[in-house]
């Protein structure tokens, strides 16, 4: 009646509340300018006097700017199984959730290490309290297939 139902040993379950948000941005600019001037006078001597005067001028310039912005947001709930308990009491957990709707499969997998003291009431822990966490979110189906780059595009990108 008063027992603590938190995960403690191998085979126990713990619910992870995944709330992950990442943002990054990069900006770069490059400017390049190069001028070259060359001139040559006719030579002296038996053969060099036949070399005419030559001169040329060339110039190059380029300018490039670019930016990249990436933002990701993942909110999910997954129940994971304790796979190992380390000597200090920390637990290695693994979980997988597959949801299929209209032939579109969404898969969330999680592996992490959690400290027993970070597991809260209701046997839950926020993903921000996990260590060595790996979260994968992927999809399979018609919509996911449409997001993939075609073979011709990949070939052209590889060449250029």
Could you explain the architecture of this structure?
With 160 residues, the protein is mainly beta. It has two domains: 13-25 and 73-159, no CATH class; 27-67, no CATH class. 9% of the residues lie in helices and 59% in strands. It contains two helices and six strands; from the N terminus they run E-E-E-E-E-E-H-H. The chain has helices spanning 142-146, 151-159, and strands at 13-40, 54-85, 91-101, 104-114, 124-126, 131-140. It has a six-stranded mixed β-sheet with strand order 5-1-2-3-4-6.
Features:
2 domains; 6 strands; mainly beta; single chain; six-stranded mixed sheet; 160 residues
- Beta-strand fraction estimate: over 45%
Mean pLDDT score:
83
Give, in order, the helices and strands: EEEEEEHH
Q: How many extended strands?
A: 6
Largest sheet: 6 strands, mixed
Widest sheet: strand ordering: 5-1-2-3-4-6
Unreliable stretches (pLDDT < 50, length at least 5) are none
Distance between the termini: 68 Å
Work out the helicity level.
under 10%
The computed structural class is mainly beta
Number of helices: 2
How many domains make up the 3D coordinates?
2
Report Rg. Answer: 31 Å
Which descriptor suits the 3D outline?
elongated
């Amino acid at each position: 009646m008063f027992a603590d139902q938190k995960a403690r040993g191998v085979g126990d379950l713990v619910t992870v509340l995944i709330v992950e948000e990442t943002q990054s941005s990069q900006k770069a600019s490059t400017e390049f300018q190069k001028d070259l001037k060359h001139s040559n006078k006719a030579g002296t001597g038996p053969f060099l006097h036949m070399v005419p005067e030559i001169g040329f001028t060339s110039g190059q310039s380029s300018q490039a700017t670019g930016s990249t912005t990436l933002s990701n947001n993942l909110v999910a709930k997954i129940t994971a199984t304790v796979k190992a308990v380390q000597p200090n009491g920390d637990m290695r957990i693994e979980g997988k959730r597959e949801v299929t709707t209209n032939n579109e499969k969404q898969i969330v997998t999680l592996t992490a290490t959690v400290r027993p003291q970070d597991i809260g009431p209701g046997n839950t822990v926020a993903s921000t309290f996990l260590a060595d966490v790996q979260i994968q979110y992927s999809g399979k189906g018609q919509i996911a297939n449409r997001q993939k780059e075609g073979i011709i595009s990949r070939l052209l990108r590889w060449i250029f």
